[in-house]
Specification:
Helices cover 88% and strands 0% of the residues. With 210 residues, the protein is an all-alpha fold. The chain has one domain (2-209). The chain starts with a helix and ends with a helix. 25% of the residues are buried.
């Protein structure tokens, strides 16, 4: 193993560092989504029941007791329940937009790792082959073909390493991007649901007053 690392040269070390960075990002993102995963339908029904009863403190407590983009959005809506409908919508949309950096954290870097790793591997192979054929050019001829073959095989180590790092990075990058996209689409629906809930509560309150 140590021999391979030495043969791969400086570029192989860069690829290895990128592999550790990619693995750290993947693990961190998976743990984040696991931590923030909630039964949103069940939670929304709980919040809806408390809001309809005008138990706003209880609704806020429910939101604060569960950490997720959904509960933060619901909390923002409840805190701005007395504002006009168009302001509620603007505030909720802004709250939803503020969740995007949290959801997409490090994903661009993971995508870069997925694309850069095989290119670095190819660069390592090219530079390795330049060295191998440089030896051939210096001596004019090589009596033992295994010497040239050994130099080329050493150069291909970086290509293999780059592909090995790139494949899981691409898979998890696409998975995480798709997951973020689905969450954002759902949040758009949740903004509308929250506005309807808050304004239905206001309508009921006005009807009662009349």
């Amino acid at each position: 193993m140590v021999d391979i690392l030495l043969k791969g040269g400086f570029i192989l070390w860069i690829i290895i560092l990128l592999s550790f960075a990619g693995a750290a990002i993947i693990i961190e993102r998976l743990l984040y989504f696991k931590k923030t995963r909630v039964d949103e339908d069940k939670l929304f029904n709980r919040i809806k029941a408390t809001v309809e009863k005008k138990h706003y403190d209880e609704a806020l407590f429910i939101c604060e007791s569960t950490v997720s983009p959904f509960t933060r959005l619901m909390k923002t809506g409840i805190e701005h329940r007395n504002y006009p409908k168009h302001i509620q919508k603007e505030v909720l949309q802004e709250a939803a937009n503020q969740e995007i950096p949290h959801l997409e954290r490090f994903l661009s870097f993971l995508g870069s790792i997925a694309h850069i790793s095989p290119l670095l591997g190819l660069l390592g192979t090219v530079t390795g082959n330049i060295k191998a054929f440089g030896v051939l050019g210096s001596f004019g001829a090589v009596s033992d073909p295994s010497v040239l073959a050994r130099g080329i095989s050493e150069a291909l180590i970086t290509t293999a390493a780059g592909i090995i790092v790139s494949i899981p990075a691409v898979i998890f990058y696409n998975y995480l991007v798709d997951k973020v996209g689905k969450i954002l689409i759902k949040m758009e629906s949740q903004v509308n649901d929250m506005i309807i809930l808050l304004n239905d509560d206001e309508i009921i309150e006005n009807d009662t007053a009349e």
